[in-house]
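User: quick one, fold this
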Amino acid sequence: MIEDKIKELGFELPEAPKPVAAYVPVLKVDNLIFTAGQIPFVKGELKYKGKLGKDLTIDEGKKAAEVCALNCLAAVRTIIKDLDEIEHIVKLTVFVNCIDGFTNQPQVANGASELLEKIFGGKGKHARSAVGVSGLPLDAAVEIEMIVKVK
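Assistant:
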């Protein structure tokens, strides 16, 4: 089971975070599920805040990306109830709150990508964009959107 694998890796699948504005956190269209952007909330608290290259290291950014990926999976679970219904992680869009000139967005995004591959194996390999931005909601370090194909 996928949730058992998450625990084996030393992580916990959280409750799905509540939206911070006027949108739905997750939407299913046919056999695809789209998450809204998820920021690194842990138990209702923003765990990674600030800019990469100034306030946070790449390793902290990778950890923030892991939390965001888990929050995306938690949002997906609100629709399908069982993560074993996931056929494939299709795409991630990773936004990295960073200083001008920061070019390590792919390394930060690897935190999420590597975790998803550990959880899902080949089904976790996905297309991805890693984008540097000048700011994110609540000054979050990272925000991730996920597209998942389900059975």
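User: anything notable?
Assistant: The radius of gyration is 14 Å.
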